[in-house]
Amino acid sequence: MDLLVVGAGEIGRWVADTVSADAAPVDATVAFADRDPAVAADAAADRDARAVAADGDTAHDAVCLAVPMSAVPAAVEAYAPRAERAIVDVSGEMTDALAAMREHAPGLERASYHPLFAPPRVPGNVAVVVDEGGPTVDGLTDSVQAGGNDVFETTADEHDAAMETVQAGAHAAVLAWRLAADPVREEFHTPVSAALEEVADTVTEGSPPVYAEIQRAFDGADGVADAAAEIAAADDEAFAALYERARGDREGRDRLE
């Protein structure tokens, strides 16, 4: 398989490494395209790959879009003509991505993948919606699984709704806690606050534009803000009710698992 990875950042490089790994069941070669040619050249130089022009006309068996969520629809339109068998994305938003693929690549295999981790923390869970299956998408999925990742199927609606909680809401809650927190000596930390410190360190080691894209793409932060305001304003009785509601929500999540 000849795969064009559009976007030579961390996720694009993870895709390239995953499909070309020794354990991958598909014999894949990789080309990188990026709006910054130097970034594509750097990614290619670090592995057995090549760089091609972002505005070129090279043809490939498959195209994988590893670009910001807001750029996916335009990227689908631009790169679908360069895909001969399949077009997929790993952006993290599925509804608009798949709609663009249906419009601009109706004759191709189509899928949207979302690695639910940052590349330094591989392997992990990878959500996928296969909109139009076939051997090329199957090969990509098999390669992701061969890398030790747990690939699970979902729908675009279910995925994007979940991202409101697990990304937009979670990030907003963690960042708000870090911004509101005063520095304390390590000895003062409780198990809860120590865990929050660790999570906040994880969130803030990433890229601000990536996290900003998530907040723009998905609702969730407003709900966290509203809940915090409820807690801050609650008297004892209201607080107890909120606490029990949170306990019930936790038990409901445990049943889902």
UniProtKB/TrEMBL annotation:
The keyword Oxidoreductase applies. Keywords: Oxidoreductase. The keyword Cell cycle does not apply. InterPro entries: 6-PGluconate_DH-like_C_sf, NAD(P)-bd_dom_sf, Preph/Arog_dehydrog. This is Prephenate dehydrogenase. It comes from Halorubrum ezzemoulense (Halorubrum chaoviator).
